[in-house]
Prior knowledge:
Blueprint: H1 8-18, H2 20-30, E1 33-36, E2 43-46, H3 48-54
Antiparallel strand pairs: 1-2
Amino acid sequence: RFACxxxxxxxxxxxxxxxxxxxxxxxxxxxxxxxxxxxCGQHQVFDPVDVGELFTPTEKQPPGSTATH
Length: 69
């Protein structure tokens, strides 16, 4: 049985592999990066904040919120 293994994390890693300059170019042109999976049809959308997080080392990112909803 086929099951697509795409995920936001995998797409983010692929974007990091393309490099910051290439991703910034897409952001400047389109305002966001939208990656669609050809197998399952799912789309992953990365805005400028998401892209900034991709290229900022984890130890330099501010801590997330501990609030629960």
